[in-house]
Specification:
163 residues; alpha/beta; Nucleotidyltransferase, domain 5; five-stranded mixed beta sheet; 6 helices; globular; disordered C terminus
């Protein structure tokens, strides 16, 4: 059974990018509303933008949900709506940033009917502003998580430079 009309707003933040980061999600369906936020010690804005979309989709309880996701990230919206992600997948996610998150995204994305909509950030859109607030507050929490995949990618990049 599909849930029709789920609206999701997402945002990501990284202070000093890269730096302390977080994501914020507002999910709405009929009279229901759910807010989700998580912070990370050291990450990037783009990782948090993408992770917000992933976590929102992973939170849905029923496969086949019809979802509209609003994001102010051209990086995320264009990769999906312009179908760049399929070329990246075909090439094994090589030579792109955040391959770990794009792989995770492609595990959940096909399970739903998703429309991505770009919205202008900081333009007074209530739910987008709320997500921005949640993301920035999460980035400031004392109990932030480690973005181990990002930290590992930095170590690998440094290793490549030594060769």
């Amino acid at each position: 059974m599909s849930h029709q009309g789920i609206e999701i707003y997402t945002d990501g933040a990284a202070l000093n990018n890269p730096g302390a980061g977080g994501y914020g999600i507002v999910m709405m369906w009929r009279k229901h509303r759910k807010e989700i936020a998580e912070g990370y010690k050291f990450t990037t804005n783009n990782r948090m933008e993408l992770l917000a979309v992933i976590v929102a989709l992973e939170t849905l309880k029923s496969e086949g949900s019809e979802v509209t996701i609003y994001s102010d990230s051209r990086y995320v919206v264009d990769a999906i709506e312009k179908k760049w992600i399929y070329a990246w997948r075909k090439k094994g996610y090589t030579k792109i940033k955040n391959p770990d998150l794009w792989k995770r995204f492609m595990e959940i994305y096909p399970k739903h009917i998703v429309k991505m909509v770009w919205v202008k950030g900081h333009a007074g859109i209530t739910e987008n502003e709320r997500c921005d607030f949640l993301a920035n507050q999460a980035a400031l929490r004392p109990n932030r998580l480690e973005d181990t995949e990002y930290l590992n990618s930095l170590k690998n990049d440094e290793g490549d430079m030594d060769l």
